[in-house]
Amino acid sequence: MSKMNTDAGMPIAITLDPGTYLRCTCGKSRQLPFCDGAHSGSSSQPVQFTLDERRKVFLCSCGKTATMPFCDGRCGVDVEQL
Ligand code: FES
Q1: Which of 18, 33, 37, 43 lies deepest, with the highest CB count within 10 Å?
Q2: How far is the first Cα of the chain from the last one, in angstroms, to the nearest whole number?
Q3: CA of 42 to the centre of ligand 1 (A)
Q4: Is pLDDT at 4 greater than 90 in this prediction?
Q5: Does 71 contact ligand 1 (Cβ within 6 A)?
């Protein structure tokens, strides 16, 4: 069960270096939007993703996307236009 802010309706734009990341889905992390292990003991699990090159990504913050952890526009935001 995700505790993402379904009212937010905005992706998080962030430029990341190559590497593997864990996107927090419980909302308890002190290092949002990334996991810091605060979900421990709950049913929430972070979503892992890997980038092969430095690039700007749009992380879903509404929880509606079908391409977690990335925004797919279901929030109403056209990330192609950002
Ligand atoms: S922020 Fe969730 S689909 Fe865009």
Answers
A1: 33
A2: 29
A3: 23
A4: no
A5: yes
